[in-house]
Amino acid sequence: RTSAAALDERISKGEVPGPLAGVPIGIKDLVATKDLTTAMGSALYRNFLPEEDDIVVERLKADDAIIVGKTNVPEFGYSGAGHNPVFETSRNPWKLEFTPGGSSSGSAASVACGVTPFAIGSDGGGSVRIPAALCGLYGMKASMGRVPLYPGCRDERYPGISSWETLEHIGPISRTTSDAALMLATISGPDMRDRHSLPKADFDWLKVLEGDLKGLKVAYSEDWGYANVEPSVREICREAVKVFEEDLGCYVEETSPGWDNPLLTFWSLVAENSDLAGMRAWLPNHADEMSPHLVDFLMRPWSAEDLTNANKARQALCNKMARFMRGYDLLLTPTLAISGFPVHMQGPEVIDGKMVS
């Protein structure tokens, strides 16, 4: 209210407001907000007040957006569902007995039920895309460094915050692509505080939405070569393929990058990007205050060989994708292999009649 009142007063004095003037926005509770509690879904940070805003929050405020609150997350973002030990479980506004996904759980729920038109999420392993898909929204994970990160997961002083250093992206969750583009126009761009930060994009985020896709060659893969996918998801995605072919004039080829299941590689990279020593130091006195799946993750005896192999596997996947994409302009895939799962679960146990590994 204070921010909105101050904005009203500035406008009444003839000041030209920013492009997001008066727009209410929710901020994922892993993203630092100065003097506004950033609990990260953890009892250990229940009363944590960051000393400064994250870069994206600085930029949203500079464009006169109104930060209306923080949005719920699983503890430190280590889950694709909306549970944590501090706040109530996040639910999907379209079906309350189902999860909105995670880890940007509250951000997606906020946009889906109309509390805010957009929200900020973050994504290291699907955490913008998963809840956007499960809530019928648009989620954007831009290239590494397109949206700078600081202090957030770059702050080495705080265990649990200083993680995901080579995996994390911050991005918008919105109801439309144009809303996402509007947010990216504000939050993207270089900042010297993030060593991964990219130069300013040489295009206009909103104008590129007006581009013509006619003639583009599109690869379509339902399963990446390894995944089980619900028949209903396959059916919906095939309808989307028709739009690319019949309405947009693209050439679509059903194919596959031929991946092996990267799950072990992913969790090994998460371990490498996590402050394992700092977080493990909590276990003797605080394990009962922490999410059980996070405790299990921290207790696993990750080895240097695990981490080395994971980085080799990641590089191999990058090389495979670079070779694969030489023949295509776009890759079209399902976001998720499922259409949803119950709120009490961490994830589905069976997909298309097959057990999930």
UniProtKB/TrEMBL annotation:
InterPro entries in UniProt: Amidase, Amidase_CS, Amidase_dom, AS_sf
One MF annotation (Gene Ontology) recorded for this entry: catalytic activity
Family annotation (Pfam families): Amidase (PF01425)
Domain Amidase span(s) in chain numbering: 2-347
SUPFAM superfamilies documented for this protein: Amidase signature (AS) enzymes
Protein name: Amidase domain-containing protein
Species whose genome carries this gene: marine metagenome
